[in-house]
């Protein structure tokens, strides 16, 4: 495809720049998606700041974004899993543009009736949470296991709660730093809310599980929260670290790990393309039915037009949004 397209680009300051860039052409194994809506992730803010020359950043210009929903408009050579006209959603780089290239392995069909401004807010959460479950060998079902989700009130954590519910979790415990988000957590399926600004995590989880601890931890926080999760995990339980917003370093009690015979996993899919493709294939099999019937829905804090991108960046900096921020095109 020739010509130019509108895109949000980093490298020009403390926000995105709305500008014209060359339109892409799909190569072998790629599909071209005309974006209808895109969703924002926490990582987007770090990328803006890392490229901001006024803040010591690289100044390197690049199309921003990771999540998109829209319609397939062109296919590269060898594409056999997707057709022109398909309504899809995907997690991929350079997503904040009118036209987005996607590896066909990363494309997820968007269920009938799921609006693009809703569908665009799902892919990263689905693949992140399902990938964590796959690391623990639990991608096909939880069979009543109890689950602790730290950072449960984040946009990704809220999807995680619904994912474990859809896959048959028993008791679900979720953490948040603010009591203001406790009701939201209960609405999406959390049984016990732990407000970490008011409660000690380990004590609260043990109290909620009659001293046993949980079978599985999905940790989106890391830092010292990761250490606090270990003594809150049941014997032979598993802990999967997903995010590190609380910092990459932690001082742990090895006794809490060893005496309980715990298994710890770490996951990060961005640089491992084949692994990401396998995880997304698992999402299509195990989670899209729950998306189609409404058991899994993103919590969308606000939907704004493409031209209001600077306001979205400010909302990210404020940290006040309850759920995903979405930009619509067209």
Automatic annotation (TrEMBL):
SMART domains: PKS_ER (SM00829). It comes from Janibacter alkaliphilus. Pfam families: ADH_N, ADH_zinc_N. Keywords: NADP, Oxidoreductase. Residues 11-327 form the Enoyl reductase (ER) domain. GO terms for molecular function: NADPH binding; oxidoreductase activity, acting on NAD(P)H. InterPro entries: ADH-like_C (IPR013149), ADH-like_N (IPR013154), ER (IPR020843), GroES-like_sf (IPR011032), NAD(P)-bd_dom_sf (IPR036291). Gene3D superfamilies: Medium-chain alcohol dehydrogenases, catalytic domain, NAD(P)-binding Rossmann-like Domain. SUPFAM superfamilies: GroES-like, NAD(P)-binding Rossmann-fold domains. This is NADPH:quinone reductase-like Zn-dependent oxidoreductase.
């Amino acid at each position: 495809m020739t010509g130019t397209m509108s895109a949000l680009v980093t490298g020009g300051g403390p926000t995105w720049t709305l500008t014209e860039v060359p339109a892409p052409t799909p190569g072998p194994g790629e599909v071209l998606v005309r974006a209808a809506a895109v969703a924002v992730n926490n990582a987007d803010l770090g990328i803006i700041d890392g490229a901001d020359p006024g803040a010591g950043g690289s100044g390197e210009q690049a199309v921003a974004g990771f999540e998109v929903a829209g319609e397939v408009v062109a296919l590269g050579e060898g594409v056999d899993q997707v057709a022109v006209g398909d309504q899809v959603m995907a997690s991929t780089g350079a997503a904040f543009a009118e036209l987005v290239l996607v590896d066909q392995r990363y494309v997820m069909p968007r269920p009938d009736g799921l609006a693009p401004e809703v569908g665009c807010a799902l892919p990263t959460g689905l693949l992140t949470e399902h990938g964590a479950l796959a690391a623990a060998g639990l991608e096909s079902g939880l069979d009543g296991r109890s689950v602790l989700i730290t950072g449960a009130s984040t946009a990704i954590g809220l999807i995680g709660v619904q994912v474990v519910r859809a896959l048959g979790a028993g008791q679900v415990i979720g953490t948040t730093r603010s009591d203001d988000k406790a009701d939201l957590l209960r609405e999406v399926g959390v049984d016990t809310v732990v407000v970490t600004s008011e409660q000690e995590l380990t004590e609260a989880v043990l109290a909620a599980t009659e001293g046993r601890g949980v079978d599985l931890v999905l940790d989106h926080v890391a830092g010292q929260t990761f250490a606090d999760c270990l003594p809150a995990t049941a014997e032979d339980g598993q802990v999967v670290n997903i995010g590190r917003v609380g910092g990459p370093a932690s001082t742990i009690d090895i006794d809490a790990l060893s005496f309980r015979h715990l298994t710890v996993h770490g996951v990060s899919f961005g640089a491992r393309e084949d692994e990401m493709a396998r995880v997304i294939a698992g999402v299509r099999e195990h989670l899209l039915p729950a998306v189609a019937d409404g058991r899994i829905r993103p919590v969308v804090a606000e939907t704004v037009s493409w031209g209001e991108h600077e306001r979205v960046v400010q909302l990210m900096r404020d940290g006040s949004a309850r759920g995903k921020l979405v930009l619509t095109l067209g």
